[in-house]
Fold each of these.
Amino acid sequence: MTTTYTVLSEGLEKRFGQVRALRGLDLAVPEGTVCGILGPNGAGKTTAVRLLTTLLRPDGGSARIAGHDLVREAAAVRRVIGVTGQDTTVDGDLTGRQNLRLFARLHRVRGPAGHIDALLERFGLTEAADRAASGYSGGMRRRLDLAASLVRRPRVLFLDEPTTGLDPASRGEVWAVVRELRDEGTTVLLTTQYLEEADQLADDIALVDRGRVAQTGSPRHLKALIGSYAEAVVADPAALTRAAAVLDRLTGGEPSFDHERAAVGVVTRDSTLTLPRLVRELDAAGVPLLDVTLRPPTLDEVFLRLTDDRTTDEHVSDDRATAA
Amino acid sequence: MSTLALAHDGSAMLGRQLLRVRNNPALVILTQTMPITMLLFFGYVFGSALAMPGAEYRSFLVPGLLVATAANGIMTGMFQAAQDVHRGVTDRLRTLPVSRAAVPLGQAVADLVVTAVGTVPFLLAGLAVGWRVEGPAPAAAGALGLLLLFRFACVWTGIFLGLLSRSEEAAGQLGSATFMLPLLSNAYIPTGGLPGWLRTLAEWNPISAVTTALRDLFGNAPVPEGAAWPVAHPVAGSLAWCALLIAVFAPLAVRRYARP
């Protein structure tokens, strides 16, 4: 069986003056899956979404959305996508219901009255339906944005940082909706800065760094690739070197120091390393331990790691200044 | 994009703008009371210091204020467009399968509807301070048509500038600066007494041509002698100005909307 890719981009490029926001973005999102685009601020996530939703025209490369060429068949692309993001919102001067009616009309959805009531109900907006959207809380606003994207069921839903700025409860609601939609067969492409969000939702993750996909794979695959982070905080700064030597011996990784906190840490792919063993070994070496951590790496550490790898693997270091 | 699609989408966008007015009536009422306040202030306070008798000045002033208010369409168009752009509404609409001209067109037509309704209280206030239609009725109807056409042209100008704006605040500031435009025209004062170069400048202001046309068609004041061409031929001059503004700014606005 051949895989159908609902979003397929090859070498997408976008420049803003001197800044190369996208430097050849390749994406392949199979139909009915959730693809998480994960990356730090300025990596090009939002630019990628703006290109794929026809808001910007690429300077190079090509992409097809549900088989339609992004540039030549932009109108057809717009008929099959839904977009919700920080930069694409509903009209705050209209009520929730008025907004959904407007989008239903623009989407040419017939007999929208019952349909809209159902949408309001589904997103917990029935009570607030006749109040101006500008008075909604952040979570309600985002839910209304989502509902507006679903007035007509899109084949591809683009979510640009859908939970940034939301409280944990609202975040959970958005996640539930994304899972439901995926189960109903909608392809979802979402950008996020949160590793946890990508982990929770995405079937596949594309790590984007400086306008390019640095790595793709399932969350499990990427985690294994990146490993975990072991860190020791010591009582006496003089003991840092000793602690580093232990970490080096246990993991074979290169320790990095945080002298201000008197801490030393290392990234390891060794899944057999446990916290008790770490403590034992450090203690046996006479390190005056204040704190020991063994945890999945933060996104910052992941990117540091990936960019370090690439600096040695490829000759990309010369481009770093332009993307910063 | 077919005309049918444009009509469908445009009317949806028109509906949206009218809903906004219905949801915020206070804003519209405030906008519409402004020219009435100015009529009373200019008509009675400034009017008392002018060589022209007060009643005559107020008749002279009503068409001027009508046109000056219509010119505020630049500000309104700009502010609304900038608000939509910077709050993300424009981008959401751009991702929809919506006719590209529909959004600015809907905004411009909605503004026309609001202006047409909002002009009624001002005309009543004008009648209350002694202004009358002194010419034939068809000419007066033509005057109102010309007024709306000028408003339409101003709104398109504003929409284009609003789509270009860097922020809502910048649009608001530049928009407020447009209140200066009627000051350099014959809306509030006759231009005959101005120094030569300033008079020329004022008479080439589109507001002057439209104001003169309204005064002429309402029968409030004759076309001044020795004025620049648009004021000397006020109806033709006004139509030419409106056609020029629409021909330049409507396509620019649609293009800017379609391809940021």
Amino acid sequence: MGRPLLADAARAEPPAAPAAVALRGVSIAFLLDKGGTYEAVAKTDLVVAPGEFVAIVGPTGCGKSTLLNVAAGLISPSTGKAEVFDTALSGLNGEAGYLFQQDALMPWKTALDNVAVALEPQGVPRRQALDRAREWLDRVGLSTFADRYPHMLSGGQKKRVALAQVLIRDPRILLMDEPFGPLDAQTRQIMGNLLLDLWAQNRKAVLFVTHDLEEAISLADRVVVMSAGPAAVIVGDYPVALERPRDIAEIRTEPRFHEIHKAIWGKLRGEVQKAYALGEGRRP
Amino acid sequence: MKVNRWTLLALQIGVAIVLLTVWHLLTTVPVNGKKLLDPFFFSTPIDVLARVWKDFYTGTIWRHLGITLLETVLAFVTGAAGGILFGFVFARGELIAAVFDPYIKAANALPRVVLAPIFALWFGLGIWSKVALGFTLVFFIVFFNVYQGVRDVSPTILANARMLGMNERQLLRHVYWPAALTWTFSSLHTSVGFALVGAVVGEYLGSAAGLGYKIQEAESVFDVTGVFSGMLILAVFVIVIDTIVTAVENRLLVWRPGTQSTTAQG
């Protein structure tokens, strides 16, 4: 499955600034308990330009989250390297904010404290951090929920807090691992629009992992398709030439959206079917 | 099942009245010229209550209560501090945990009562031998809970905190420490109870003051009324302490699910 990338169309103009994230020849293999190794991702190249919103789609278990974790520095690749603004990444990616799929808020801190604590590593004085955290809760529409603990918040509200927690640090790169996966359809749309609003105000490089193709197209500038695992590779790279600002719910009715969806789904469907044939591509 | 608070309280008091009445009848009303239970061995509820009243009225009980309370608090504080400290060290240092694992298990499996005479030899008959006994009980409960709590911190919360740029010290303060405290507090009822057990058993086995001593002293002169009144005071004492612990717990663990009913939807 070593098909070449179809990436050229996406980068009509050569990027002047260094790439925000560049994965070069990255492969990831895990040691198995019963001996031997399992290659989750085979040699892969992926470049995200500053301010670019890239979505990775692929069948369940294809290793797209693994690839994201390499960009975050949470996993080191078996071969190849990750570069962040032209610097080889070693250890955690300090330029990146990471939005997890699962609940990652500290349950013992209120919404306000969860957001404010994100500024502590930068040495921001607590009072100032609290003021800025209040501003951010306001931006994600939760100003009246500042004193709530995570268990008193709904799934969507928790995601809003998590978004504020990540964005208050103003990272130059945003990594998102199926962040809206656990939410219901309507909440996902609302969160998607919120994300696009915030991103439009301050364009960061975004790497967004999802298995939902419609979500990927409606959010991203570029959609990257990964093959079914094991040894997943990128098998497609499609520009999304849709106007911004977008409304997630409305954009799905546009003819252009359907054309793009059809083109990508043609590729993705085959991979999804392969994954099912392999038992959903789960690791052995 | 949902019962009105006052109905519940009335039923609970009803149980006490029934039990006391039966006890009273069996020990005071002769059947065929013979009481079913000999008051010498079983005392009577009125005598017991009168003794309790006298103990409080004359004020002799306060000193014993104070000593037992002091021992309980000291045993709890030292045991919890030691348990938290060692729980942390063991949870963060896998080699230490692996090496000491059999010793910790062996020490915990030892019935603590056998230590009481040793502690009396080492620390004398004053409060410190009782504090030591309570310490050995509280320490292991808190130790195991903190150890578990620190090791079971959600990997996602940890990864998130790291991605936010926290260093080891900040992780300790914002993630590990609160997680460990949660587990400590969830074992608070048990550990405070054991601190009291340590104190009373220690007093019972050898001392000159405290509730355990009061009971032991009454037993040695076949003063059943004294034994029962001591037990009654001890029981009320335990309930009071437990109520305080519950209040502290509710205060400190507001963030935990189930402690408050305001859950938002949507």
